[in-house]
């Protein structure tokens, strides 16, 4: 099994995407390498089991790739959080700030059951605005945020501090 060092080597920097000044961390080479993808999932699964989550809530679109696979491994439910206008049924909404702009996130009104312990999953933690918005949506539905899980963390943007202050432990596999 490859170590997370191999995963780190596969993550590709794409300068000036989606706009000048942003170095985009492209995780698609990791998804394309079966052993590396498995090792990411094995490690996330191991960390996730500690929190005893009842549900995965993942953020579109790269969060879905990891979140759905983890929900299958743990045999728990999966609920999507999407950008404004993508979900078909009644939604709750939250405005959030991200590294490059502002946006609105939505969850279906029945995404989380009251009292459920929820793990929030995304590919990358930057400023933490997106994951914070996701946590607000979970709490609007009376869910508890058990943990935030990411493959990559951009530590210099201090998103972790924001999420920990908002009341959830943060797990990230690869830090820059
Ligand atoms: P933030 O809300 O600032 O923590 O940004 C996190 C969200 O934006 C995640 O859904 C990431 O996929 C995406 N994102 C932000 N910055 C980057 C980056 N440098 N490389 C890849 N994805 C990013």
Task: Write up what this structure looks like.
This protein has six helices and nine strands. It has 176 residues and is of the alpha/beta class. The protein has one domain (52-175): Rossmann fold (3-Layer(aba) Sandwich), CATH 3.40.50. The strands form two sheets. It has a seven-stranded mixed beta sheet with strand order 5-6-4-3-7-8-9, sandwiched between helices. Strands 1-2 form a two-stranded antiparallel ribbon. Helix 6 (159-165) links the parallel strand 8 (144-153) and strand 9 (170-175). Helix 1 crosses helix 3 and helix 3 (34-49) packs across helix 4 (62-74). The mean pLDDT is 96. Bound molecules: adenosine monophosphate.
Total tally of structural domains: 1
Given this structure, which CATH class is correct? Alpha Beta
Structural class: alpha/beta
Bound molecules: adenosine monophosphate
Instruction: From the alpha carbons, calculate the radius of gyration and give it in angstroms.
Output: 15 Å
Per DSSP E runs of 2 or more residues, the count of β-strands stands at: 9
